[in-house]
Design a protein that fits this description.
Length: about 375
């Protein structure tokens, strides 16, 4: 079986690399086609894979220019031309597109020409960019969805929202049969080294945040929420990790604002981006993970925090919301709502022992290991190619 992956964001997050390595271990031949945007050429060569399956490879394309982001159809046709000129399409059994509206559009056009089946995922960029700002293309997006053999959602919230809001009523029943939830996996560094107990709350309460210092992650609001809790008498601090995170576009003005706020308090600690091994050790010395990120497709760091037995605070209606019942492993909040964030942190403090006991009982490997996830994709591939 030879699978063509179309993934324009390869080289940023390690999510795709981990999936492709896990699929490689199952013996699947893969061609990974990466149509880089003009601003992402620095990703070439990042996350290289030492494939075990002969003939598997990564192909980078720099055909896109800065103008293509304004010219949707021209962008699709440019990627299509780049693929057909660099890949022997006759060798491809299945196409796996990383997004619906761009990568999926290319897969849809290839399917029309060559009758190659395809699957695609729906991600944050589809929901929050293309469906919002390319509304005149919505009928075309539906054709992409309808033509796919399977459509993957990373989280329950996006599937529910997409089917309710983006699928015509007459097609909803058929759509529900086509969609499937498969989460992203978590690095074995975390899954294979779990913690099943947590430091008690007898002293200072340590909150940790780990992400890029960008507005959508809610760091400013977390700091203000903790200030509220300190005013109520809680001995609580926050360590924020992620300044300078590679391949993330930090806003200098926002970063300066965070640093200015942090300088006002001796209980706010800002840390640069660090490797996962060091981050894991920081998790172990913390009590609560807080990141009310919006928009958020999934949020691997939530699961990484759970592996170290940390209760979590996450954004309502975003990627991680819905994987566990409310209150089981933490609480959702209205993103950027300082009072709600403060209230939910306080609620976790009140219920801390019960929550950490529940987290310790969860089989996270079954849900979030790349081996299990790759097997699910392999089963989908086989069922489609077999037809």
């Amino acid at each position: 079986m030879h699978v063509l992956h179309i993934v324009d964001s390869y080289g940023g997050t390690e999510v795709y690399k981990n999936l492709f390595m896990a699929l490689d271990s199952l013996g699947i031949k893969q061609t990974i086609f990466v149509p880089l945007n003009a601003s992402n050429h620095n990703r070439i060569g990042n996350h290289l894979i030492d494939f075990q399956v002969s003939g598997s490879k990564i192909i980078y394309s720099t055909a896109l220019t800065s103008y293509h982001k304004f010219l949707y159809q021209f962008k699709i046709s440019t990627i299509l031309k780049a693929i057909t000129s660099s890949i022997n399409i006759d060798e491809i059994d299945l196409i796996h597109a990383a997004t619906l509206c761009v990568n999926g559009a290319v897969a849809y056009e290839l399917n029309k020409r060559y009758r190659i089946p395809y699957i695609c995922a729906v991600r944050n960029t589809d929901m929050e960019l293309y469906y919002k700002y390319f509304r005149w293309r919505i009928n075309y997006f539906f054709k992409i969805f309808k033509g796919a053999s399977q459509v993957i959602f990373i989280c329950p919230q996006y599937q529910k929202k997409f089917v309710q809001e983006r699928i015509p009523f007459v097609y909803k029943k058929d759509a529900e049969k086509k969609v499937m939830i498969i989460p992203n996996g978590v690095d074995p560094l975390f899954l294979n080294d779990r913690v099943f107990c947590s430091p008690n709350l007898s002293g200072a309460i340590h909150v940790i945040f780990a992400s890029a210092f960008v507005k959508g992650k809610g760091l400013k609001e977390i700091i203000l929420a903790i200030a509220m809790l300190r005013d109520k008498g809680y001995n609580i601090d926050i360590k924020a990790v992620g300044r300078g995170l590679p391949f993330r576009n930090e806003n200098k003005k926002y970063l300066q604002e965070i640093e200015t706020i942090a300088n006002q308090y001796d209980w706010v600690y800002l840390e640069n981006y660090m490797n996962k091994r060091d981050l894991k050790m920081l998790f172990r010395g913390s009590h609560i993970f807080v990141m009310p990120s919006k928009p958020e497709t999934f949020g691997l760091v939530y699961v990484e925090a759970l592996t170290q037995n940390l209760p979590i605070v996450y954004a309502k209606g975003q990627g991680f919301d819905g994987y566990f019942s409310e209150g089981y492993i933490g609480y959702h909040v209205e993103a950027f709502n300082v009072v709600d964030i403060a209230n939910k942190i306080e609620l976790i403090i009140t219920e801390y022992n019960d929550i950490v006991e529940r987290i310790a009982r969860i089989d996270l490997k079954e849900q979030f290991s790349w081996g299990e996830i790759a097997q699910k994709y392999y089963n989908i591939y086989k069922s489609i190619v077999g037809k």
